[in-house]
Amino acid sequence: MQSSKGRAHDAVAGQESSVEQLDGHDPAAPQEAWQLKYDDPWYDGLASGWGEMAAGGEPAPAAVPSARGEGVSGPSEADVYLEVQRSAAFQEVRRRYRRFVVPASAAFLVWYVGYVVVATTVPQLMARPVAGALNVGLVAGLGQFLTTFLLTWAYARHARLRRDRAALELRWDTQELTRGVNGGAS
Fold it and tell me: What is the value of pTM for the model shown?
C-alpha cells in the first residue's frame, strides 16, 4: 500500500513509516507537492517534484527554473560574488588569513621534516637518554603532537580575533546583494 507521498506504509495497522511520522508536517497531496516553496537556501529546486504523481497518475512535471536567467535584468549572482571578491574588505580578510597560515604552515613543515630527517640520519642523537626511559626521539615526537595542538589553538584564536567579524560582515553583505539580485527572494 502506498502513502500520499509515494512511500510504502508499514505493514502493521497501515501506519506510515517512522521517518514520515517525524517529518513535523502533514504530507501534501501529490498534485500539490510540486507547488511547495521552501525558504531554505539549500533547497534543491531541481529535485522538487521528484517521484510525485499528478492527478492522472502520471509523473508530475517538475517546476525547474531556467538556468539562463531569462527575463532577469541587472547584475547576476556571479557579478555580485566577483564584486565582493574584488572588494577591499575581502582582500583584507584574505591577507590576514595568508599572513598567519603561510608562515605557520612553513614553520610546522620545517619542524616535521627536520624531525624525520634527524631521526633517520642521526639515530644516536635520537637515542640519547633525557630522563629515565625518555630519550630525545620520544620527547621530539611528543613535541610534534604538542605543536599540532598549539598551532590549532593559535589558528582558532587568530581567526576569532582577526578574521571572523570581517568575514561575517562580508557574508551578510553578500547575502543582501544576492537577495537584491533575486528580487527579494532568499
Answer: 0.53
* Confidence at residue 122, expressed as pLDDT on a 0 to 100 scale: 93
Residues pairing with 89 in the sheet: none
- Helical ranges in 122-162 per DSSP H: 123-126, 136-158
Give which of 7, 9, 15, 11 is closest to 33, Cα–Cα: 7
Are 5 and 34 contacting, i.e. CB atoms less than 8 angstroms apart? no
Do residues 186 and 178 touch, judged by C-beta distance below 8 A? no
Nearest-5° angle of CA 17, CA 22, CA 43?
Answer: 105
Distance of CA 85 to the CA centre of its chain: 19
pLDDT at 80: 84
Q: Tell me phi and psi for residue 129, to 5 degrees.
A: -70, 140
Neighbours of 39 (CB within 10 A): 7
Burial of 165 from C-beta contacts in 10 A (0-12 / 13-18 / 19+): exposed
